[in-house]
Amino acid sequence: MSTLPQDLLDGISGALAAEGNVLQMVLVTFIALSCYNIAELVVLVTATFRRWRGLYFWSLLTSGCLGVVPYTIGFMMKFFTRADSVLSVTVLTIGWWTMVTGQSVVLYSRLHLVLRDEKILTWVLRMIVLNFFLLQVPTTILTYGANVIHTGSLAWVWGYNVMEKVQLTGFTIQESLISTLYVIHTVKLLRLGADTTSRSNSRTIMYQVIGINCTIMAMDLLLLSLEYANQYAVQIVLKGFIYSIKLKLEFAVLGRLVDIIQGSRHPISVAIADTLPLCSYPHLPESSSRAEQTDPEPESEPEPKGVIASPDGEVVETRDFVESRQSRRPGSWPCNE
Question: How far apart are CA 307 and CA 270, in angstroms?
């Protein structure tokens, strides 16, 4: 009869139903916390976002509700119940696809707020799609092979354990690259924007954004360390909890970025702005009476509107956000739609 360490080394083909009670309680606690974090995130997102649409909004909810929750429930079925392997593996696989790739899509969608280089954005999107086929599809094949087709086969179990390390390393690098791009361009936004750098809390916001992203990358490295230490059961259950925390931190990062953009004239995509609890201040027509009383002045060029690509691939106009109430024009009351 295999011992607990051997079961952990067996990866997804192992079982913990008859093993240590303390480990079971710890793992079940993390599963419950994962589901609680997602429930809290759903409440926060739906209550905060003004319009329920946009790539960021739906990727955030999908990664949580259809990703983290099925992933943790699937592994609970696999490790702690006698549920059919096909059912438990299918549930956790669907959750894993949505959770991991969905997290990268969340990172990609928020990158549009600070990055305007379409070549880099296209490269990031292609990387996400390519890694899905290179990392998740082979892992799924080995998962079903070790649990359904060739149950208990040492060759399939060994193949899965190797591929698990490869895919986790690949997705850690992918998310770290996207987060690094986000931090770099956020810092550029703060340093180059005259409006934002004059704000007293702009440096604090910059440090918060950097700190949150560094925390997210540190969590990824923790999962990677557990995987290479062959602590499989701990790693996969902790993964669901960590991804739920990462999604909540992503929401916090967005809030900090909104503070930056609201305090500057940096353009933001309408496709994203419509999903944010932001206020755009329309430009009212200038008074004709004053113009008649004063000497005519040369016509100034209309304020340019940027044109960028939205996360959905559509070309949209951009909006400017005004920093303070003093800069609002009379009659342009903004919020609380």
Answer: 10
User: Hey, is 319 helix, strand or coil?
Assistant: strand
- Mind listing the domains of the chain with CATH numbers? 4-264 (1.20.1070)
Give the CA radius of gyration of the chain: 24
Q: Are 59 and 106 in contact (CB under 8 A)?
A: yes
pLDDT, tens digit, for every residue of 207-260? 888 888 889 899 999 999 999 998 887 888 789 999 999 999 888 877 766 666
Q: Identify whether the C-beta of residue 101 lies closer than 8 Å to the C-beta of residue 136.
A: yes
Query: What is the rounded CA–CA span in Å between residue 90 and residue 12?
Result: 12
* DSSP result, 53-111: -SHHHHHHHHHIIIIIHHHHHHHHHHHHS---HHHHHHHHHHHHHHHHHHHHHHHHHHH
Closest CA to 136 of 101, 90, 178, 85: 101
Identify the DSSP state of 199. S
Cα 70–74–79 angle (5° rounding)?
155
Cα–Cα distance, 211 to 215 (Å, whole number)? 6
Residue 263 pLDDT class (50, 70, 90 cuts): low
* Those residues with Cβ within 8 angstroms of residue 143's Cβ, 6 or more apart along the chain or in another chain: 12, 89, 93, 160
Amino acid in position 261:
I
Alpha-carbon span 210 to 208, nearest angstrom: 5
What does pTM read for this prediction?
Answer: 0.72
> In terms of Cα–Cα distance, which of 254, 278, 114 is closest to 185?
114
